[in-house]
Design a protein that fits this description.
Strand content: over 45%
Structural class: mainly beta
Shape: elongated
Low-confidence stretches: none
Largest sheet: 5 strands, parallel, barrel
Number of strands: 32
Mean pLDDT: 95
Strand order of the largest sheet: 24-25-27-28-26
Number of helices: 3
Helix content: under 10%
Length: about 525
Amino acid sequence: MLMLHTTTPAQQKSYNIMSFGAKPDGKTNNTKAIQQAIDKAAATAGKVVVPAGKFVTGPLILKTGVEFHLQQYGVLLGSAHRLDYGKEKAGALLSANGQSHISITGAGEIDGRGAELVEDVYRLLKAGVINDAEWKTKRPGEANRPKLIHFEECNNIIIKGITIKNGSGWIQDYVRCNNLIIDSITVSSTSYWNNDGIDIANSKNIAITNCYVNASDDAICLKSEGKLKDSCVNVYIADCKLRSSANAFKLGTASSGGFRNIVVRNIEVWDTYRSAIALEAVDGGFLENVDVQNVKAVNTGNAVFIKLGHRNKDERYSIVRNIHIKDMYVEVPLGKPDKGYNMEGPLLRYPPGVVPAKNGEVQSVSPWNHSGKDSTAIIYRHNVFPSSITGLPGHEVKDITLENIEIVYEGGADKTIAFFPPEALTKITEAESAYPEFSMFGELPVWGLYVRHAKDITLKNVTLRYKKEDFRVPVIFDDVQGLSIERLRIPASKEMPVILLHETKGCTFKGLVLPKPETEAIKIQ
């Protein structure tokens, strides 16, 4: 377990924002009054107190030594007027840059009023008051949708107890920060797109514990972008409940730097559109030493997605290695897991200009998960996607272990919806530079687990089963060097083989529980 140490002055002087003229009427813009309280507290390493009431504010800047404390029933309401955040790039509601020993605590709320704010953004865009290159084809860009918390290059941070909700963009973003504790907070933000619950970028020594996140984008996401030397290192995430219309826990997509020493424990996931666990290095960076244990996910589109890709334009290839996922139970439905939420994840579509294959034709394309307004894009019909562990030719993912894993699929695949025969295995798209998602290979001839371009893969006490018959192969290993399987249990399979090995060498099997003898259930081609 990662241990972080922070210090708080034994006796803090408190500064109630109402003493500086703030009014809890839900109407008055209190930005100047609250900032004055922050500035005063910074001189004594004091505490800014938000008492019960609704206090409207624009952007606030936290400073070294300040604790920003929201008492119970104290609500910080983000202004619903876009211009209060600046005419060009919108400033975050609460920000800090280059500060230390700062905290946001208490039992109160930060409410970004994202829906109301976006309405004002559209009004200003239509009037030509502000500019945005994306809004007519997709939605207003991130520059016009302020984050609720944005800390950059800060040290010794505590975020504890508060509720954060209704953002119009990323809820929290911590960039190049060191020694950060996020504990016992609630994030509820499904009012608009790109509502990542917690984003950590190129930061070190992080602990996220006892948190509840319900977000319309990734729930907890680590990113590594910008300078090549940047990375996320020493991150501990435990005892969190996560719901997302994207991924529950994700490393990436931004991955030009790297991720190292990431520990995840005791995670509950529900109604999540994409993956419970998504580990992605696709921009030339590294992803290594990841230890995930005790995950329970129900009504989730995918259990595990591990991907080495190559989106970057230079010759650097990412490195993905030394990943251990243990004690995991996942239920994958046939339908859309986030159906009915305010902001559902976008339906898959064929890429612009691509049409579905005709009957009898083999087609493998990476579906488009873009949420833009494109009436010409055709819906991509598909069967349930499997978990996957994939690299690229000559650039394998390495040293991956799945242990004590059970994945229950709804099954019910239908050849009239989509059919990709296992004989055409070599024609599956590599999608080398595509945006990484568990659906990125399109329809696959496998329902349980797909492993390609990998080295030293271990499956130990893994169960894959379906509720309804599926005509596809349960497990496929393609271009795998070094495969150890001990106690793999697949109780039912409509068709044979159960395990398909293609260009796979160095295999050892022990204690397999399959519906047919191994001579019939395992096929080598």
